[in-house]
Every structure is written in C-alpha cells, then in structure tokens.
UniProtKB/TrEMBL annotation:
<dbReference type="InterPro" id="IPR052614">
    <property type="entry name" value="CFAP65"/>
</dbReference>
<dbReference type="Pfam" id="PF22544">
    <property type="entry name" value="HYDIN_VesB_CFA65-like_Ig"/>
</dbReference>
<dbReference type="InterPro" id="IPR024038">
    <property type="entry name" value="MYXO-CTERM"/>
</dbReference>
<feature type="domain" description="HYDIN/VesB/CFA65-like Ig-like">
    <location>
        <begin position="298"/>
        <end position="386"/>
    </location>
</feature>
<keyword id="KW-0969">Cilium</keyword>
<keyword id="KW-0963">Cytoplasm</keyword>
<feature type="domain" description="HYDIN/VesB/CFA65-like Ig-like">
    <location>
        <begin position="209"/>
        <end position="286"/>
    </location>
</feature>
<feature type="signal peptide">
    <location>
        <begin position="1"/>
        <end position="22"/>
    </location>
</feature>
<dbReference type="InterPro" id="IPR053879">
    <property type="entry name" value="HYDIN_VesB_CFA65-like_Ig"/>
</dbReference>
<dbReference type="InterPro" id="IPR013783">
    <property type="entry name" value="Ig-like_fold"/>
</dbReference>
<keyword id="KW-0966">Cell projection</keyword>
<keyword id="KW-0732">Signal</keyword>
<dbReference type="Pfam" id="PF15780">
    <property type="entry name" value="ASH"/>
</dbReference>
<feature type="domain" description="HYDIN/VesB/CFA65-like Ig-like">
    <location>
        <begin position="398"/>
        <end position="497"/>
    </location>
</feature>
<feature type="domain" description="Abnormal spindle-like microcephaly-associated protein ASH">
    <location>
        <begin position="503"/>
        <end position="598"/>
    </location>
</feature>
<dbReference type="InterPro" id="IPR031549">
    <property type="entry name" value="ASH"/>
</dbReference>
<protein>
    <submittedName>
        <fullName>Choice-of-anchor D domain-containing protein</fullName>
    </submittedName>
</protein>
Length: 991
C-alpha cells in the first residue's frame, strides 16, 4: 500500500536585519495519506523585516544589521547571521513501515547577494541552489523549488516517527528565508509479516503447540530477498522456506512457529524476518502461557516422633498440586524401612490444580532409635516426575543388656555360702525397664534380690547372686531374667561353681626325733599338713601335749590357719632333750575335715649325741610324659645330732629305681655338720606307662639310723592336659541365629606347670565355629576355660575338631569334637502349593492333607495354622513338636463367589511375627448352573461396593454398546476382588 506525504517548510528572506527572532520554530503537518503519496512538512523562520508582496524593501535594507526591518509579503524573514537563522527541526508523522525515497525543497525567499546555498537532511546532502534575488531589496520572490533528490533505497539516516533536522549552508552573501516546504515521497515497508502479533492458547510445559502459520508478503514495488528467520523466547520455527530466497512484489511465503513453554505462566518472544527491506527486520510479537502441574507434599519430612516398639501411630501426608494444570499420579510406593506402610493408598488419582490429596501412613517401629523411609510419588509433575517425601520416626522402649552373661563362683565347701557375685543389668532403651523376675535352673544358685526392679533409661541395677553347693564337684545352672523388653524379654546368665570338701593329710604320721645329743640346740622336725581334698581346710587349733610335752616345742602359728585345696603347710616341732633317754608327746591338730576332725601326731625323741634326719621322707613327682624329664625335686639330709654326720653312700633302688636320677651327686663321703643339711636334687624320667616307685637309700654313721630312705614316686601318662567335655553338640539352629557359646575346661593333669598354647579349629567346616584363645600357664591340677561359638551361617551340618596345645610341642594336644547343624527353616511342609481345580459356588471340595516336619533340635510350638482367604478352610490347630516331629492338617476349598480364587496357608511358630511355612492355594469357582467356568456372574453391582465410586451394571438390550457390557464385567470383577480382599482382611487382620 502506498501513502502520500505533503510537508511545507517556508523560509522568508527579506533584508539583512539582525533583530531578535520572536518565533523560533513552528511545526505543521499538511496533506493527507494517499496512494501514491507526497507529504509536506512546513518549517518557518521569523524576523522583523516586512514589505508588501511586490513591494520594495527600504533602501536601508542593506544597512548594518539591526538598523531596519523588512516584512516581505506579510512573512517574517530571517537572514543568515541573524538570531532567527539556524537548523530547523520537524517531526516525522509517517505511518508504520514507511520508506522515504524522494525529497523536494520549496523555498520562499528574499534575495540579497549570496553565493551557493546547500541543503542537508540529518547530515545527508540533498543538493544546492543559487538565490535569484539581489540585495537591492526587490519585490519578494514567490516560492521556488530549489532542489529535488531521489533515494530509491530510502534516505540514509532518516528518522521515521522522530525528529529530523534541515540545515542550509550559504557559501557567501546574506540570503534571507521565510519558509521552506519539504515534500517527501515514498512507500510503506515492502516486507510485512501478518499477523503482527499472536497469542498462543495455553500450552503444557515441555510440550510443543500446534504450529501457527505466519504470512510473509512483499508489499513494495521492488523485489526483496528474505535472508533468514529467527525466534526468541520459547518459540521455534517448525517450517519455512530455505533462506535466502527472493520475494517479488505482492508475493507471499509462509513460516510455521510452535510454542514450547519451559515454565509455568506468561511467556513472550518474537519472530524476526531479516531481508533486504531498508527497514528490515520485520518483527512479529509472540506471547503465550505455559501450564503445568507441580507436586509437593506437606509436611516433608513427616516426623512421627517416638513410638513404642510393638505399637503403631498413623499420620497424614498431603500431596499438593501447586501448579496450574491437573496432576496425574501414576504410582505411590514406599521405599526404605518396612516400619512404615501406606494405609489404603489411592490408585492413580488425578489432583486438580491448586488442590490436595491426603494419604495415611502407619508407623510401626520394629527397632530402637531413628527409623526412616520414603514415599515415592510418580506423576507427570513438571517439577519432579518422581517426587520423594521423607518419613521419620523413632522406636522407643526398654532394652535389657546383661553386662555379665557368665558367672563363676569358683570353689566353695559343700554346705557353705560362697562370696556373693553381682551381675549388672543395664537399660539401654528409651523407657523404663522392669525386671519382673529371675529364675534358676539349679537350686544351688539363688538371689537375695526382691522383684520387680525398675531401671530408668541409661540406668543400671546390680543383682546379687549366691552359691551354696549341695554336692562335691562342678555345679552348673543358669539364671533366666524376665523383663518388659519388647524385642528380647528374657536373658540367660550361665552360672558355674564347684562344690568342695577339705581332707587333711598329715605327714609324717609321727615325728621321731631319734637320738639327739642332750644339751644341744633344739632339733626341729616338720610335719606337713596337706589339703588333699577339694575345698579350703581350716586349722583352728594345733597344740602339743603328753608326758614330755615340755621337751617339744611347736613354732608359732597364726590361727585359725586356712589351707587351699592342693596346698600344704608345714608345722615345725622342735625337740630339746634335757637328759639322755626317751621322750614322748603328742601334736594334736584340729580341722574342718568332716572325716577327721582331729589328728594326733606322736612325738618321740631320745637324747643322744648325733642323729640323721631326712626331709621330706618321700618325693612325689606327679604325672609326667613317658620319656620326658620332670622338673627337679629336692630332698634334704640333716644331722640333728651333736656330732658330724658322714654320708657314705647314695643309692637309687626300688622296682622302678632306674626312672629316677640324681641331678648332681655330691662327693662322698660327704660331711654334714651338726644341725646342717645336705640338699639332693632328683628328676623323674618314666620309661613305661603307669606308676613308678623307687627309693633313695642314704648310708651314714648315724648309730640309730645307719641307712635312711626317701621314697620316690611318679606316674607316667600319655597326656598332660585334659579337656572337659571332649565333645560339643550345638544341636540344630536356624541360619543366622547363633546358639549360646559353650565352654571347654582345660586341666593340667601333670606334676609341673604348663604354658598354654593356641586353640586351633580343624576340619572341613572349621570356619563354622569360633573359639577364644587360652593364655598364661597352669599349675598342676589347675584349670582354664575357652568358649566355642557355632556361627550357624549356612544350612549344612558342620563338623570340626578343636585342638588345644601347650607352648611345649612335645606335649600332645587335647581334642574336642564339634558338631552343629543349621537349617533355613525350622519347619518344612510336604507341599508348597495346593490346587483344588473347579468347585461349584456353595459346595466344598475334598480336603487336601498337609504334613509339616520339625527340623529343630529342640521342641517347637506351632502357634497357628490359618488361611488368608475365607474361601479356603483349614482344619488344624497349633501343636507341640518334638525334634523331628510332624503335625498334620487339612485344607478345603469352599468358594462363595464365581471366578479364580487364590490364597495362602500360613504356619506361624510361637513368638514369631512372620510365617515359617507358606503354602499357595488356588482354585476356580463355578457359578451355580453354569457349564462355562469362565462365564461372569450377571448380578447387578451397586456403586457403593466399588472402591472409588463408579457406575452400576445392568442387562443391556440390543441398543447397549459393547463397551458398556465390557465395562460392567470389569466393574463386577473389581467388586469380587474387593469383597474377597475384605473377607480376607476380616479373617486375617494385620498383625
């Protein structure tokens, strides 16, 4: 389309006055838009020189500036150099997309002498003219066109819709101007895009809209070249011609643009078309609005606080659609700890924009402390297609910890109370722990504590335990502590102790001092009080009496005197005769030996001048390995007389005399001065099994005892350490549940101390056991303990050997055989699934028998045998099963609704929370009178029985659509499943 502009710019030129201008600028638009167009803008100059049209200016026109004025034709004029002269502005009012191609300047002037006048528009030179008037102040000249310029591509620098500046420059002279008319010719922009603006319908975020077509047209008169298309914002060109391409006048092209919002809410952008149009580019303003659903939950996280273990709490988590479009939820699932469950979660709900959906969560803690899980919500939300809502809570309750699980009272005499032992019980839980009772498996053990005992969280209680053995030997038992701990209500404390009884052995049975020189220093002999029993021996009294008691003296004693089992104490008795002759007395020793409360040791002596004395009179080397030398034992030869004692010979003899040897033999004869001793060192090296007896004969010049004997004894054995028991059977355990550790007692049966070595597990299944390591050394007769644990980590029977040695590799190892068995299930059934085939509704199938067998090593109690579907009937109750025992029950199918039926039989053990055995049940129920097992029932279904609401079903006539019939069948199937679910729930409520 073409438009015409007319613009008048008038310059009045008269005289050379420099009087100040009174009207600096006036802008005026004339003419109307037409096709084709010439639009004129008028610009005026003002001055103070006025003459009539055709009249003459005063002769003073050429006088110096400021001396006269001239008004020509009623127009105000301004002369070059005067205050009214200078650049003149006008504002373009052309229509949109205009292109100015030609400029005409029409000038009214008064001519004084002047050279060339050049015209510039916004700095672009338009042309020049010569004034026709002279400075003789001739009549005012009419307007004249002094220049016309054409710019086919548009005037460079033209300010469309803005201010443009006309500038006249004279090379010489003083031209005066009154008015200039500027006529501009042109066309509208040649490249137009339509529509110029477009708003897309609301579009889902992330999806592309239907393309919108935009028309590109060359509305000019010359051919254009389209160089390219560009878009901004969430808008994209989805189809357009390949650029560059030519576009003839009037020709059109189509470009398609899609809207793909990246976010919710309003969006703006543009389509830009670049071309050779001087006013390129052409721009189309684009807008649209993105819509999307947005998901959040509240609260997030949802904290259930502290809940007692075994109890439960429910809470609501709300799913919020914070977007501006429908939120489609495709799945709601739990992830994490099984302590949290969804209560009746909705199936694939749709949440309108700005609305919410509450869901109920149940928290049932199964352990102490913090518990966590997540609700994973799958949806089409723009902000998160898999939204995670956190769940937290804490399980609380009492928790019993028995710090000491084994108590050893050691040795205590039968019928006496051992020193009390204390066992510490701590509450490591969060609420008060109540110890209800403590029971004992052996009456030898007891407690003085009264129950119940309450223990605050983080607190402890010290429970005293007592031991009073009723018989000699090792006494074992356990204490069972019962509490309100919800996870482990009982704890077992292993108790051990040994009943002992003292036995007093006095050696020698008498103290014959022999010949002792009268007047000499007292001669001393010792009597050995040995406790050969198993308990502490108490000596409350030891005294000398008799006719010559004054001649004998007992060394001071701290009475009462206690001698441990296996230990001995020597009492020293001195004899100092005052006259030659025989003296007699008695040493009486009282004790708590139940068989010998009092023992009398006769004391005899004879006043002589010299006497040999042997200490001890016998040496017992105890048990030793064949071929292995014992530790050295010493014997002493004393001269209790008043003269030197000469030892002339030392001879080893007896039945096994060769098994004994002197470590060093003194040079003979050896002289033992009065009241001195000669020490001998002997070893025992047995060559054959059994007891070895010998003697050391000592020949001397003692007139009363020329030959003294020391009896020698030892026992050859094949083993110096023994273990008890020699076999451990851990029975049958469930995989992952370790039975209690069992103890093995190691005893030194030899006559010398033994340094213990390592305890080693051997055998194909050695890795199934663990053993603690012994340490230190054992004196003869002493014991040590190691603990053996069966790990029960695989469903196999495990056999191994425990070997316990010493630091001396020559001592044979003791061996304990180990046995244990672990199973995956304590119960196994002879069937994993039962299929009852087809049964008519209302009828009952023949029962199917099931046998379960115990694999446990201890008795089991079946708590319940139940079906999770009321269409399957179980005939069977709980039972007590011995190890390897079996239980039988029957299952029948009695359908109540037509269709496929499924269920499970679950067998639970006492105190178990999950079934030990699960048997799948299947069957097909036939509608009464139906020959087709697949035919659905035809009953109408009410919407009240369908979860989530819906529509009913009715028999359709010829006009019913197939979709409506199928919908009714699907609805009926849903009803049957829901009713079956409800019955199963009522029959087997959640545990």
């Amino acid at each position: 389309m073409l438009f015409a502009w007319w613009t008048a710019l008038t310059l009045v030129l008269c005289g050379c006055s420099t009087s100040p201008s009174t009207d600096n600028q006036m802008e005026e638009r004339t003419g109307e838009v037409s096709q084709p167009f010439s639009t004129t803008y008028q610009v005026r100059w003002s001055g103070n020189l006025t003459v009539p049209v055709g009249g003459n200016c005063p002769t003073t026109c050429g006088t110096p500036a400021g001396t006269s004025t001239c008004i020509c034709g009623g127009q105000s004029n301004a002369c070059i150099g005067g205050p009214g002269w200078g650049d003149k502005n006008f504002t373009d009012t052309s229509p949109p997309n205009a292109v100015v191609t030609t400029v005409h300047l029409d000038i009214q002037q008064m001519g004084c002498s002047a050279g060339t006048v050049s015209a510039f528009l916004n700095g672009t030179r338009l042309g020049a003219y010569q004034p026709t008037a002279t400075c003789a102040c001739n009549a005012c000249d009419p307007p004249q066109t002094v220049t016309s310029s054409r710019f086919p591509r548009g005037i460079p620098g033209y300010n469309y819709g803005g201010v443009n500046t006309l500038r006249l420059e004279a090379s010489s002279g003083s031209p005066c101007l009154a008015r200039v008319d500027i006529r501009v010719d042109g066309t509208t922009a040649r490249l137009v895009a339509t529509p110029a603006t477009y708003t897309y319908p609301a579009q889902r975020v992330g999806s592309a809209s239907t393309p919108q077509n935009f028309t590109i047209q060359n509305q000019g008169t010359e051919e254009l070249t389209v160089n390219g298309f560009d878009t901004s914002g969430p808008f994209d060109v989805s189809g357009a011609p390949n650029t560059p391409f030519p576009l003839a006048p009037g020709q059109t092209a189509t470009v398609r643009v899609t809207f793909t919002p990246t976010g919710s809410g309003p969006a703006t952008g543009s389509l830009t078309v670049a071309s050779t149009d001087p006013r390129s580019p052409a721009v189309v303003q684009l807008s649209g609005s993105g819509v999307a659903s947005s998901i959040s939950t509240s609260p997030n996280p949802r904290d259930f606080g502290s809940v007692d273990i075994g109890a439960n709490a429910t809470g609501v988590v709300t799913i919020n659609n914070t977007g501006n479009d429908v939120l489609n939820v495709s799945g709601i699932a739990m992830r994490g700890a099984s302590d949290f469950t969804l209560v009746a979660p909705p199936v694939a709900p749709r949440i309108p924009a700005g609305q919410s959906l509450p869901i109920t969560v149940r928290f049932s803690p199964t352990a102490h402390g913090a518990r966590a899980a997540q609700i994973v919500i799958t949806s089409d939300a723009a902000n998160n297609d898999e939204y995670v809502s956190a769940l937290t809570g804490r399980g609380q309750g009492p928790e019993m910890e028995v710090v000491t699980s084994e108590v050893d009272f050691g040795e205590t005499n039968v019928g006496t109370n051992a020193a009390p032992k204390r066992v510490t019980i701590r509450n490591t839980g969060e609420t008060v722990l109540r110890i209800a009772s403590m029971t004992f498996s052996n009456a030898d053990f007891s407690t003085a504590q009264t129950f119940p005992v309450d223990i605050a969280p983080a607190g402890r209680a010290e429970i005293p335990l007592g031991f009073r053995p009723s018989a000699i030997g090792e006494r074992n038992g356990n204490a069972v502590v019962t509490s309100n701990d919800p996870l482990e209500p009982t704890a077992r404390i292993e108790l051990t102790g040994t009943g002992t009884s003292p036995t007093l052995r006095v050696s020698p049975a008498s103290l014959p001092f022999g010949d002792v020189r009268t007047g000499s220093a007292p001669t001393s002999l010792t009597v050995t009080l040995a406790n050969t029993g198993t308990g502490p021996l108490v000596i409350p009294r030891a005294a000398i009496g008799g006719p010559d008691a004054a001649r004998f003296t007992l060394s001071p004693l701290n009475l009462p005197l206690t001698i441990a089992a296996g230990d001995e104490v020597q009492l020293t008795v001195s004899y100092a005769p005052t006259a030659v002759g025989a003296n007699t007395a008695n040493l009486t020793i009282d004790s708590n030996d139940p068989s010998s409360a009092s023992i009398v040791v006769p004391l005899t002596g004879n006043g002589v001048s010299a006497m040999i004395s042997l200490q001890p009179a016998s040496l017992d080397f105890g048990a030793q390995l064949v071929g292995r030398a014992s530790a050295a034992r010493t014997a002493e030869i004393a001269n209790t007389g008043s003269a030197s004692l000469n030892i002339t010979a030392l001879t080893l003899g007896g039945a096994q005399g060769t098994s004994f040897a002197l470590v060093t033999t003194p040079e003979l004869p050896a002289v033992v001065e009065p009241n001195t001793k000669l020490t001998l060192s002997l070893k025992f090296t047995p060559s054959t099994m059994g007891d070895s007896l010998g003697e050391l004969s000592i020949a001397s010049d003692d007139p009363n005892t020329p030959k003294a004997l020391i009896s020698l004894k030892g026992t050859a054995v094949s083993q110096l350490i023994s273990v008890s028991p020699t076999s451990l059977d851990f029975g049958v355990s469930k995989v992952g549940i370790k039975p209690a550790a069992q103890a093995v007692t190691i005893t030194n049966t030899g006559g010398d101390p033994i340094a213990l070595g390592s305890a080693i597990l051997e055998g194909a299944q050695a890795a199934a056991f663990q053993v603690s390591q012994p340490s230190g050394s054992l004196d003869p007769g002493k014991t040590a303990t190691v603990n053996v644990t069966y790990l029960a980590n695989a469903p196999v029977e495990a056999n191994a050997a425990l070997k316990i040695g010493t630091a001396d590799a020559s001592i044979p190892k003791a061996q304990v055989t180990l046995k244990g068995r672990a199973v995956s299930q304590l119960l196994v059934a002879d069937a994993s699934a039962l299929d009852f085939g087809q049964v008519n509704v209302g009828e009952k199938s023949a029962p199917k028998p099931v046998t379960v067998t115990s694999q446990a090593g201890t008795p089991l109690e079946i708590a319940s045998i139940a079906s999770d579907s009321d269409q399957f009937i179980v005939n069977g109750n709980g039972a007590q099963l011995p190890p390897g025992g079996t239980a039988n029950f029957e299952v029948s199918f009695q359908p109540t609704v037509a269709g496929d039926a499924v269920g499970k039989v679950k067998v639970l053990l006492k105190d178990a929370t999950t079934e030990e055995v699960s048997i799948a049940l299947t069957g097909r129920a036939l509608a009464p009178g139906s020959n087709n097992p697949d035919a659905p029932p035809s009953d109408n279904v009410g919407s009240a029985d369908i979860y989530g609401g819906g529509c009913g079903c009715r028999a359709g006539g010829a006009g019913d659509a197939p979709g409506r019939v199928l919908g009714g069948l699907a609805l009926l199937a849903g009803l049957l499943i829901r009713r079956r679910h409800r019955r199963a729930t009522r029959a087997n409520p959640p545990r």
